[in-house]
Amino acid sequence: MNAILTLVLAVQILTALGMIGLILIQHGKGADMGAAFGSGSSGSLFGASGSANFLSRTTAVLATVFFICTLALAYFGSYRAPESGSVLDRAAAPAAAPQPAASGPAAQIPGTSAPSAIPGNAAPAAPATPASGAAQIPTR
């Protein structure tokens, strides 16, 4: 999957660079008026009329490849592997059983869980200062 994504991205970058180059060397629609008054359009690489067909068709092909690569990258970017089971099966998974409330100062601190009964695990110590905002303001 990752190799395909890298390949599509490389093709998209190359077609983008090719389109930029081809668009920059093409003449605009107003360039034909200058050719009527002696501008050097007839001395171009592909002749007076051959460059418009070749360059515009090549640009159209590169634009099509760029568009297809963009759609492929959008598809692969939103692709998720299918998961087994339904949404209802995953929602009905049993919830963890609530732990009994512990007594003592650690149980009174909001946002902490009860200390574990595993030996070697010490419960966190309660703060020495009160948790009010007035106690945290330094005095002079």
TrEMBL record:
InterPro entries: SecG
Topological category with respect to the lipid bilayer: Multi-pass membrane protein
The keyword Membrane is annotated on this UniProt entry: yes
Membrane-spanning ranges: 54-76
Domain of life: Bacteria
GO CC entries: plasma membrane
Cellular compartment(s): Cell membrane
Keywords: Cell membrane, Membrane, Protein transport, Translocation, Transmembrane, Transmembrane helix, Transport
Main location: membrane
Pfam family, one: SecG
Region of interest called Disordered, as start-end residue ranges on this chain: 97-140
A GO molecular-function descriptor: protein-transporting ATPase activity
GO biological process: intracellular protein transmembrane transport; protein secretion; protein transport by the Sec complex
Function: Involved in protein export. Participates in an early event of protein translocation.
UniProt family annotation: Belongs to the SecG family.
PANTHER family: PROTEIN-EXPORT MEMBRANE PROTEIN SECG (PTHR34182)
UniProt-recorded name of the protein: Protein-export membrane protein SecG
Lineage, broadest ranks: Bacteria, Pseudomonadati, Pseudomonadota, Betaproteobacteria, Burkholderiales
